Sequence to fold (333 residues):
Amino acid sequence: MVKVGIPRAMLYYQYYPMWQSFFRGLGAEVVVSGETNHTILVKGAARVVPDTCLPVKAFLGHVIALAAKCDYIFIPTVRSIQPKVYNCSKFLGLTDMTRMVIPESPPILDIEIDLNRGQRRLYRDIYRLGQRFTANPFKIKRAALAAWETHCLYRQLMAEHRQTPAEMMAVLFDGEKAPSPAPEPACARTLIALVGHPYLTNDRYLSHRLLERLRAAGCTVLTPEMLTGAQLKQGLEESIGQGYWTYEDEVVGAAGYYLQSGVDGIISLQAFGCGPDSLMTDTAQRQAKKLGTTPFLSLVVDEHTAESGLVTRLEAFLDMVHIRKRERQPLCR
Fold:
C-alpha cells in the first residue's frame, strides 16, 4: 500500500480530516509526523536562513521526520480560497522550498488551490492528484466528495461542541464522544479568547502549552475554530470590512467577534517576523483599545522565546482580567 506522509504543521490542523479521507478513499495509507519537539524544530531551522518564520522551520522539521517513513509527502499550495484574497508567501513557496532544502524528501504530491482560477481548474487538479493512485475517475470523485463532507462535519462539530482541532480529531478518528458544553453561570469561569493561526495555537511546543496553561488557571478557552464561518465573517466585516489575506479571519475575524460577545480577555498568539499577522493583530488590538471593555494581550513567539517570560506575562494578564471581572460583577456567586 502506498504511504502518503502529512506533516503535523502549517495547514494540518485545518484540513487533516479532509486529506486523510481523500487519500484513504484512494486506497493509500496516511502517515502523520509526531508532535513538534525540540529536535524537529532544530532540524528544520538548520535548513533555512534565520529570517524564515517559525511555523515554516517547524514544518520542514516535520518533513525531515517523515522522509524515511512514506512514499510521498503531501504539500498543497494554497494560493487563495476566496475571490481576490491571497495567501501569505510562505504558503505559496512551501513546496519549492521543501524540494530545495530537503533533497532526501520523497516525491512531493502538490496541488494548487486557487479559487480565483475557477472551480473547473480546481476539479481538474484534484483528478490529476487522484490519478497518482487510481485510473478510475469515479473512485476519485467519491473520495473527493467524501473528503469535503468530512471537512464540513469537522468544522461543524468544532463549532457546536467548542472543541479544538486535536480534540475533535480524537472524536472523529479515535471514537471518543464529543462532550456538550456544560451550562454554567455567566460569571462562573473566566472566558478567554485565544486567537491566532491553528498551526501556532494548537501546537503544544510552539505555543509553550498556552491552551493547557489557560485551562489549568480555570479559564474557559475559546478559539477561532469554535466559531462558524458566518460568525468569523461577521467579526471580519466589523473590524476591517474586507479581508485581504487568506486565513485572516482566524485572527481579525475571531478577535472582532469575541470582542462583541463579552469575553473577559483576548490573547493573540503570533510568530515573530510574520508580516500579515503583525498588521492584523495590531488592527485587532486597536479595536479592543477603542472599545475599552476587553483586556488584550499580544504574544509573539520564535524558537528563542523563553517559557518563563511567557508564563510571567500570562499570569500578569490573568490577574488583571480577574480584577476587572470582579469589579464588573461584585455580587457574582
Summary: The chain has two domains: 3-158, 184-328. Residues 33 and 65 are 7 Å apart (CA to CA). Residues 182-186 have pLDDT under 50 and may be disordered.
